[in-house]
Description:
Blueprint: H1 3-11, H2 18-29, H3 35-48, H4 52-63, E1 79-83, H5 91-101, E2 106-110, H6 120-124, H7 136-146, E3 148-152, H8 159-170, H9 177-190, E4 195-202, H10 211-227, E5 231-238, E6 246-247, H11 249-260, H12 266-282, H13 289-301, H14 304-315, E7 334-339, E8 344-349, H15 351-361, E9 377-380, E10 387-388, E11 393-399, H16 405-415, E12 416-419, E13 429-434, E14 437-440
Parallel strand pairs: 1-4, 2-3, 4-5
Antiparallel strand pairs: 5-13, 6-9, 7-11, 8-10, 8-12, 9-11, 13-14
Helix pairs in contact: 1-3, 2-4, 2-8, 4-9, 4-10, 5-11, 5-12, 5-14, 9-10, 12-13, 15-16
Amino acid sequence: xxxxxxxxxxxxxxxxxxxxxxxxxxxxxxxxxxxxxxxxxxxxxxxxxxxxxxxxxxxxxxxxxxxxxxxxxxxxxxxxxxxxxxxxxxxxxxxxxxxxxxxxxxxxxxxxxxxxxxxxxxxxxxxxxxxxxxxxxxxxxxxxxxxxxxxxxxxxxxxxxxxxxxxxxxxxxxxxxxxxxxxxxxxxxxxxxxxxxxxxxxxxxxxxxxxxxxxxxxxxxxxxxxxxxxxxxxxxxxxxxxxxxxxxxxxxxxxxxxxxxxxxxxxxxxxxxxxxxxxxxxxxxxxxxxxxxxxxxxxxxxxxxxxxxxxxxxxxxxxxxxxxxxxxxxxxxxxxxxxxxxxxxxxxxxxxxxxxxxxxxxxxxxxxxxxxxxxxxxxxxxxxxxxxxxxxxxxxxxxxxxxxxxxxxxxxxxxxxxxxxxxxxxxxxxxxxxxxxxxxx
Length: 441
């Protein structure tokens, strides 16, 4: 078999076989196919697309290119939650202990962030002493004992995906639904969960900018998961403005804890309840979405969710006192209010621009080598639909790098669109995709 023939076949819009896809993934991950040939095949796939069968073969080949986690020693139905990413998305930090308090075993492997803000493990490392390093035995024991553990993603999972994604990133072949779906699902399937709930973001701050593309991606991933015998549900949620109010690592930890106390922003609370209810249904602990909502609200109201967060943090070496004393988290030297230049209604907040503004302050990474400032970030005070007078505070910036402030402030102000007319409120949840079909809200 020659990679030249595989490239030619896809160039000519022909269907690749399982064996051809496995050959490419195996040989490229071992360094036996040069980047220039892999790039040519990826561009042919990008231009001529893959059908559902090819996408499933690619996902399976990438899943099997590295270690496939065996979580069978963990009691119960393991449910994983994955977000396609967004600005202010701290959902895992609230949902992991919340689901554990409801009885769902959460065995979560998360990555670091590259872009707007840190990833889940970066945010958790804002908690003094918290460690994401765990041996497989410690990880399994933690989930069996406490029902929750979050560790760093092992480099041995879906090895081919890391190489292929890095190449896609520099060859303008990222935005292809088959390549995105297989990349996400190969890692999720290799992580050993029995069921997967996908939070597919849509809008300005999301990977997928349009509703149609977001539903198409969710449908593709649900089909892949179903074909691999995992119950898979996709929820389409809004990312046209930041989620909640906090953007930045320690600031998002505070907001995640506030949600566990029942005091989080409405959009963030609603999203956690929605995703959590579907996770409970997938785990078979409840028979309906409505029953899931009841159990979630009880866990928050009783304090069980907050107590589980403290146990989870302590178990991984962190200081559980952060749940009551936020001053234990990294603190920025400079805290500056950003004022509105206009009077009117906030019509739009460009989520991506807010994320970039936070990154400029130090909350995210532009390159893998960048060091995060865990105290840096932005706390919004006004969101879409709110009325502001000239001089009202739009947000508060937290930072240490004074030389970056003016650039971040300019980007932030450019993200706000203020008009005379009040905008129609947007939906938070646009629909749900299951193996039985699509339900649009």
